[in-house]
């Protein structure tokens, strides 16, 4: 079952799609919250997040994919985005799923892709309701990584003019300023749950070394587990069917490690909004 939800923050309305499975293994179902990346949306490039959500849902997980403000169907303008705002919006989305009756609020998983991986890292580090974290091709050094994609010339222009156009998106100076202050690697160690990192060996936008930087932080925490899986040849958005299939299979197998019992059927209550 797929239903549109609207999650209201103090300033904006975030639009999302909540996927609920027909069968699952417990009285309440675990949930995966997907945080999209830079100049993306809840749909993802070539519908990556739609396909991921449906695959995970078939595997017995609820999934909520949503648009940050200024992105996709949500209200707001892209030029006004900042990373602290996206972290706060992620918290509001967790508030929503944690109080939804069919969802097990003790099994909330954050999945972040690219810049969304950095947002998910910081969010998980400061929200003990998150018990697992999945990072897909994550940004590790936000300012360096994003300026590397946008180009220094456009960054300098934005610093001068206050706003710049990149592939049809207006980027504001506050966005770049917020990247300077974002240090996900220094925050990562505060998350106590298990972590899965997936990265494509052919990613030319965000280097594979980023995954290893995260792995180094998480494996030295002295608690929980961190696993790094490399999808051979895959690009930043897992654009081939084979790469997507391998990525989704890795995620499902990892999530299913501690699941047991047979499937049960549930009648879902009326959808809630906040």
From TrEMBL:
It is an enzyme of class 4 (lyase). One of its GO terms (molecular function) is carboxylic ester hydrolase activity. Keywords: Lyase. Its EC number is 4.2.99.20. Residues 30-143 form the AB hydrolase-1 domain. Transmembrane segments: none annotated. PANTHER family: ESTERASE ESTD (PTHR43265:SF1). This is 2-succinyl-6-hydroxy-2, 4-cyclohexadiene-1-carboxylate synthase. It comes from bioreactor metagenome. The gene is menH_5.
